[in-house]
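User: ok so my PI wants both of these folded by tonight, can you help

Assistant: No problem, let's get them done. Here's the first:
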Amino acid sequence: MSRILFLTSDYPENSKGNLYVDLVDEFVRNGHQVDVISPIERRYSKKTTLTRNGNLSVLYIKSLNLRGNVNLIEKGIATLYAGYLYCYAINRYFKSIKYDIVICATLPITYAPVMRKLKRDFGTFSYLLQKDFFPQSAVDLGVLNKGSLVYSLFRWIEKRLYRASDMIGVISEKNIEFITKDNPQLESNKVEVCRNSIVPVPQNIIEDMKMNRNKIRAKYGIPDDYVVFVYGGNISRAQGGDFIIDVVKRFDECNNAFLLFVGSGNEFEKLKEAINRSKCKNIKIINKLSKQNYDELLASCDVGLVFLDKRFTIANIPSRTLSHLNMGQPILAATDTFTDFKEVILENNIGLWTKSDDVNGFLEKVKQLTNDAELRISMGENSRKYLLNDCDVSISYNAIIKHLN
């Protein structure tokens, strides 16, 4: 039995269907002992807690605010401190445990100190789940200037992280191209694809959830006879807020289509105000729901939406896509032209795509999906197949565990 240490800033309690929770559960299911360390941000006013359940231990350690709508100075300090916080947590709660592998999920990017410590003390293999290419993502969105001292500091930290990692798993083939080109000192055989993945919910449970479609729609004031396009998750700069607002302003051009937003984030209130000003009767915005309530609502919808800012020069594939694939829903995506998410959608025939500066094109795709029920059904079936064949958590587990052999 191997001993695994899993470090992440995102490990929600009791949240099956989260890509990190499901990955950890897969290791436990296969007989490994797993210790998870994740920050519990000060905004929640909770103490550090350690829970043990069979082969799984989870430590939530008190930290500064790190994720979401956070003051940039505090976020920067929390990010810089994160690696040392993990080192402290290991010394305090898991001292002298010999780990076979440490898995680190970005963000943050400051894992190098803990990787080096475990390598020095126990020869631990370090696997980096590279989900966010910071600081480049911040440069793309205009948050950081490439010539600034702050950018240079975080770029130096990023390079240290890559040197300390024994293997780097990225979410798509395009990201292998990006990371090796941006870091020519990095050996190409040190990078592999390890896609976002979850445990697929059994089809019979999905069908049972969909049976409550009308009841759930009534609960949230959504018309029974509309085709519902749903976006669920963080609403921030990364989603291209101005483009979404331009879509909102013209969505009344789409007959029999309903636009639904569920989430939170630093652009949430701005979007809410735009929806109120539009006075469009076929748009609704709802604050973030619990996982169970969100899944029930999602099952009553027809098409999943994915937005990415047009300025990105890194290949993002948002993890929220998995929930739509799980439900067997077609995807309508508006993204930058760099990401290979477009190829994933079109080559697997799981949805439609447009550039995230083309409002006309997006609305035409909405009308196409609204008016063609057979197209929605066939693309939905393909999306579920794609999840089972390419995004099952067992695939990610096997990609990582093979390095222990």
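One down. Here's the second:
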Amino acid sequence: MGDPVRTATDERRCEDVTLGFHNTGGSAVRSGTVTFGTHVIGALGVDWATVESTEELPAPIGAGAREEKTWTVCVDAWRVPLGMRIETRDVSVRWR
């Protein structure tokens, strides 16, 4: 998995997160999940909360293949009042 690339959206409670995957194994990855840890950041830079969300991998990913996918990651509007923003900093993958 590559580093996440974050892109702002029109809503302060959402951002697009793009991940690249490279299957270096000898067989296809048939399924799995991606877990995003999205931080709610206050106006002064204080990290107020981390909200997790989970999405399905873009599977199958063949042996030696590369895939890229973009997800729109959002948190509830009430968690991001005016003056606050989000940053999806933590990403983990569970291959199945």
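The longest strand covers residues 85-95. The radius of gyration is 15 Å. Good luck tonight!
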